[in-house]
Write a structure and sequence with these properties.
The protein has 345 residues and is mainly alpha-helical. The protein is 51% helix and 6% strand. The protein contains 13 helices and 5 strands. α3 (64-77) packs across α12 (281-307), α4 (95-104) crosses α7 (131-145) and α10 (252-265) crosses α11. The two termini are 40 Å apart. It binds adenosine monophosphate and tryptophan. The site of adenosine monophosphate has 17 residues, from α1.
Length: 345
């Protein structure tokens, strides 16, 4: 039997979001920000500071706005151009909250209960987690689909949330008999930066919430700090750098450092190993530290420069919110009509 359900035929659009919580690190830069900048030239892009997601865990009201500006500054510093891409704060555009409610009524408990990120974040005492933390991935689906986005650049850890977004889109289209109304968004995960691991444990992802500062390189770290953290990064006792990919088997810390080098330099892992194979970490680590400083230094400097003028960031974010509102409002209006509400716009 062939499936002749019409599929989404609208234009392609890229959407992604980053939370204003904790300091951004190398994983965020390589897994997300750098990809955003690479996509903006030939795609219609919408990038959001997801402050509504941040409040699923307690936030200091005195710091939230400033953290939002910091993430916006990181977007711009990583090369996202507000004249090419829409950049704004999620709480400034009501479409997210509204569509999230509708999607709460479309998503099934069983689907959301399967989400591993909730289990990780809620920990042992999930009864005390906020309801918002539980429906976090439903809000994420609303973020994406309020813009009918077709492609979502994220790190590997977001794969399961993207699958849920697809399930929600598909069920909405089916339940309301509007085939092809919402696209089924595709994750853009490929590439060497999609899963950067902790510098202290090659089997754990680099994370904002890791209590060990030396486990991650933060975007605000200066050159000395970057060099120190790379010098201290865990390796193993299995000898020098391998010369080919097979030699990385069972060496997660080395694989991670090689992956970071590859993602920062743009060289393939094979090329990196061809250059450093047979050499000791005494040669590789300083080369990696130098490369990291060379690539991250300008981003950090630009971020600091932008943060010195918060009014300019606010003005840019306000323009972005207007643009985001213009795209999402007609989509929400259509959704209201489809659900059958008395009030449509
Ligand atoms: P978050 O800090 O959780 O808001 O993540 C922002 C973006 O960075 C998301 O697209 C994540 O998938 C990505 N990301 C977070 N940690 C990593 C990591 N260790 N490696 C690659 N990408 C990551
Ligand atoms: N959950 C994502 C993260 O932790 C952030 C996010 C929220 C997001 N909404 C999104 C990512 C929409 C992509 C698309 O990294």
């Amino acid at each position: 039997m062939t499936d002749d359900t019409p599929t989404y035929a609208g234009p392609e659009r890229v959407f992604s979001g980053v939370q204003p919580s904790g300091d951004l690190h190398l994983g965020n830069y390589l897994g997300a920000l750098k990809k955003f900048a690479d996509l903006q030239d030939d795609h219609d892009c919408v990038f959001c500071v997801v402050d509504l997601h941040a409040i699923t865990v307690p936030q200091d009201p005195k710091l939230l706005a400033q953290k939002t500006r910091e993430i916006a500054a990181a977007f711009y510093a990583a090369g996202v151009d507000p004249d090419k891409a829409v950049v704004y704060a999620q709480s400034a555009v009501p479409a997210h909250m509204e569509l999230a409610w509708y999607f709460n009524c479309v998503a099934r408990m069983g689907w959301v209960e399967r989400m591993t990120q909730f289990k990780d974040k809620a920990g042992k005492d999930s009864e005390r987690a906020s309801v918002g933390l539980f429906t976090y991935p439903v809000l994420q689906a609303a973020d994406i689909l309020a813009y009918k986005a077709t492609h979502v650049p994220v790190g590997e850890d977001q794969k399961q949330h993207l699958e849920l977004s697809r399930d929600i889109a598909e069920r909405f289209n089916r339940e309301f008999d509007v085939p092809g109304f919402f696209p089924l968004p595709e994750p853009l995960i490929k590439g060497p930066g999609a899963r950067i691991m902790s510098l202290k444990d090659g089997t754990k992802k680099m994370s904002k919430s890791d209590p060990a500062e030396t486990s991650r390189i933060n975007l605000i770290d200066d050159a000395d700090m970057i060099a120190k953290k790379i010098k201290k990064a865990k390796t193993d006792v299995l000898g020098d750098m391998p010369s080919d990919v097979d030699g990385l088997e069972g060496r997660p810390e080395v694989e991670n450092l090689v992956g970071i080098y590859s993602a920062l330099s743009g060289d393939s892992v094979d090329q990196v190993l061809a250059e450093f194979g047979g050499k000791g970490f005494g040669a590789f680590k300083p080369a990696l530290a130098e490369l990291a400083c060379e690539k991250l230094g300008p981003v950090t400097a630009k971020m600091r420069e932008l943060l010195a003028d918060p009014a300019e960031i606010d003005a840019r974010l306000a323009r972005g919110a207007e643009a985001a509102q213009e795209i999402s409002a007609p989509i929400i209006s259509e959704v209201r009509d489809i659900i059958g509400f008395w009030h449509k716009s």
